[in-house]
Amino acid sequence: MKSTTTLKFMKFAACLILSSGLSASAFASCGDSLSAMAAGATAVLNQTHFAGGVQSSGSKGPKTSIVGLWHIEFVANGNTIQEAFQIWSAGGTEVHNPNVDPRSGNVCLGVWKHGSHGSYTLAHRVWNYDTSGNFAGTIHLSESVTVSADGKTQSGSFALDFYDPAGNFQFEVPGTVTGERISVD
């Protein structure tokens, strides 16, 4: 039963990502989801190279990998401000699907690189628009995470940096990020 449910979910997630990508809308904005994330944070402040996780790398022993599907949570000041599914691809790209209304654009793209000892850094550069459709600048989402030795969890920090249309830094929302690997079993 569990594997059938997981398979159905995976099919649904794949269809959602494909349909979002194939039906691009002039109104879609990943920045909306990051703005919502920052708004949640502000409210809180005011009050292995494969999906299995561990890969043998010859004589060096086990090597953890970020590649795969993850359920993640962003926390600021002790409160969850967003949860998302992330796919970290072997080629160094990442797809971020936050739990926000898909009509405003809920799929974001990023790039990542591997550091030392199971650590990874991620960068998103997002165009940001206000609710009237006017360009409001950019949002930079950065993550620094470490995958656990068993490859099943990740944890680290994030920062949302907001810039105006001229590229001037406005403010930052920092916090922690944790994740659990989603696997077929």
List keywords for this structure.
about 180 residues, alpha+beta, Lipocalin, 8-stranded antiparallel barrel, two-stranded antiparallel sheet, 2 helices, 10 strands, globular, disordered N terminus
Return the CATH class.
Mainly Beta
Give the number of domains. Answer: 1
Strand content: over 45%
Q: What's the number of helices?
A: 2
Shape: globular
Corresponding CATH superfamily: Avidin-like
Major beta sheet summary: 8 strands, antiparallel, barrel
Structure description:
With 185 residues, the protein is α+β, with helices and mostly antiparallel strands. It has a single domain, classed as Beta Barrel (Lipocalin), CATH 2.40.128.30. 21% of the residues lie in helices and 47% in strands. The protein contains 2 helices and 10 strands, in the order ααββββββββββ. The protein has helices spanning 2-22, 30-46; strands spanning 54-56, 62-64, 68-76, 79-88, 93-98, 108-114, 119-129, 135-147, 153-163, 169-182. The protein has an 8-stranded antiparallel beta barrel with strand order 3-4-5-6-7-8-9-10. It has a two-stranded antiparallel ribbon with strand order 1-2. A hairpin with a 5-residue loop joins strand 7 and strand 8 (135-147). The chain is globular and about 45 Å long. Mean pLDDT is 76; it is low at 2-29 and 42-62.
Question: What does this entry show, briefly?
Answer:
This protein has 185 residues and is α+β, with helices and mostly antiparallel strands. It has 2 helices and 10 strands.
